[in-house]
């Protein structure tokens, strides 16, 4: 998929025709940067007047505590946005953004998105509406994560997350976007404890899995 198709699939440009993107980008004046794997794109404590759109690769949104323990807040891939909240508010970032693989990012100045240009570009109203929708969805996503990680046990956290993913896929069989370490970081649990719990639940007939593919079984997990 080329960059124009990726941008067309991006929620920021929803309802904007592919043929109109070149004119829109001329107005927005983007800049594009390529990052090596493990490069830090945004440090915790940084400010930014730009949001980023992933044209290729993947990034992790992480937070490290005083002792170096890492929490995986989220993970984004091609077509996803990041840093839009701090770009809008001007506040310091509470997280770091790290390239999971070699990653290409298109940066857009937030002021060019939320204010009308001198050319009276007809696309700005649509972009502003899309930005509001994106912020609302990400807030909802954070609330869902809170509902997972506030569960008491590792098992409850896993079941809460896997149930949500099953409902999202509308199927008992689904694929998650995390490997084991990423899932442990996301749920704020120890990887070894999580692996043991997954093994126990498979032995108990609650679920089955292979790598990042899971199938939930009919038996109620609290029976």
From TrEMBL:
Coiled coil: none annotated. Pfam families: cNMP_binding, HTH_Crp_2. The keyword Membrane does not apply. PROSITE patterns: CNMP_BINDING_3. One of its GO terms (biological process) is regulation of DNA-templated transcription. Residues 12-108 form the Cyclic nucleotide-binding domain. GO terms for molecular function: DNA binding. The keyword Transcription regulation applies. Keywords: DNA-binding, Transcription, Transcription regulation. This is cAMP-binding protein. It comes from Sphaerochaeta pleomorpha (strain ATCC BAA-1885 / DSM 22778 / Grapes).
